[in-house]
Amino acid sequence: MSSNTKVQGRQKITDKTLWISVPKELDHHSAEQISQEADGLVRQKDIREIVFDFSDTVFCDSSGIGMLMGRYKMMKALGGNVRAVQAGERVGKILMLSGIMKIIPVEKKQGGMQDEKE
Amino acid sequence: MKRNEMKIEFDSISDNEAFARVTVAAFMAQMNPSMEEVADVKTAVSEAVTNAIIHGYEGKVHKITITGVIEDALLSLEVADQGVGIRDVKKAMEPLYTSRPELERSGMGFLFMEAFMDEVQVSSRPGEGTIVTMKKMIGQHGE
Ligand SMILES: Nc1ncnc2c1ncn2[C@@H]1O[C@H](COP(=O)(O)OP(=O)(O)OP(=O)(O)O)[C@@H](O)[C@H]1O
Ligand SMILES: [Mg+2]
Fold first, then answer.
1. What angle do CA B103, B104, B109 make, to 5 degrees?
2. Among B32, B59, B62, B92, which one is most buried in terms of CB atoms within 10 A?
3. Catalytic residue of the set B17, B37, B47, B78
4. Active-site choice (B51, B102, B104, B114)
5. A93 lies in which domain range?
6. Domain boundaries, chain B
7. Number of folded domains in chain A?
8. pTM score of the predicted model
9. Nearest-CA neighbor of A41 among A81, A27, A49, A55?
10. d(C-alpha B80, C-alpha B82), whole Å
11. Within 10 A of A27 (CB to CB), how many other CB atoms are there?
12. What's A22's domain CATH number?
């Protein structure tokens, strides 16, 4: 209904990798849409890996963790894998707290204003 | 003492998760919060509202209310639903406990609320609903 909560369906497939551009806010509302889109594509095409690109994402809650874990389980069952890239400060903090980094490789944003390890 | 109170009521649909976060963030703006404090409160609100939608009302559309109170530097928030309630609150608040793994829930909601707020209290009765009360000191960062 309202245009500001609509998730931009931004994905691309290169080789057997599905790239998903995660929206600005990853909550229950947007996570369900992304999961449906991703699962549809994995069912139709031969996809070995899903890469979630968090470049644009400034908000993430437990629904985002559930979405990542769900895709991880699905891809693992198919012999594939899942990665997250370009995680900013806030997303990094949430992913760190959740412990999901022990299961899914997460790449932090490089060259940002605040690179955590420095 | 500086005191200010607000109350909002909205339907339990997922579009309103963002609405709830933004509204509470706007309300607390007068407390001179840091960006991190705003992000922390938004996350906690999102968790409580999402729980009311998914668990409290099990996807059916009813009303959720949020009451916000500012008392000097203390922000208190109450997120309330009249849904199914929680039988065992202590168990529900254990990290990684979820009653709905099939919905891809992972039991992190209360963990995030407790990590980002100073105090989280849950009062609930099966069949009557749930009230989550959260408190946080805001704007105390020295500059
Ligand atoms: N408002 C509510 N009404 C009824 N039950 C609730 C409510 N809030 C939480 N619960 C119960 O508490 C449990 C734990 O909540 P919590 O938010 O920590 O995890 P979750 O919602 O199951 O998973 P996640 O938040 O990671 O998606 C829920 O699984 C549910 O059983
Ligand atoms: Mg939850």
1. 105
2. B92
3. B47
4. B51
5. 10-108
6. 3-137
7. 1
8. 0.93
9. A49
10. 7
11. 26
12. 3.30.750.24
Helix axes B15-28, B35-51, angle to 10 degrees: 140
- Is residue A94 situated within a structural domain? yes
Quote the tokens at residue B123: 């009062």
Spatial contact of B45 and B24, defined as CB atoms under 8 Å apart: yes
pLDDT (tens digit, 9 = 90+) per residue, A29-61? 999 999 999 999 999 999 999 999 999 999 999
Residue A114 forms part of a structural domain? no
| Strand ranges of the sheet holding A106-108, from the earlier edge strand across to the other edge | A11-14, A17-21, A49-53, A81-87, A106-108
Residues contacting B110, CB < 8 A, separation 6+: B47, B92, B93, B95, B120, B122
Yes or no, beta carbons of A1 and B15 under 8 Å apart: yes
CA-closest residue to ligand 1 atom 31: B99
Q: Is B82 in the pocket of ligand 1 (CB under 6 A)?
A: no
Alpha-carbon distances of A1 from A112, B22, B24, B120, rounded to whole Å: 35, 18, 22, 33
Homologous superfamily (CATH) of B3-137 is Histidine kinase-like ATPase, C-terminal domain (3.30.565.10)
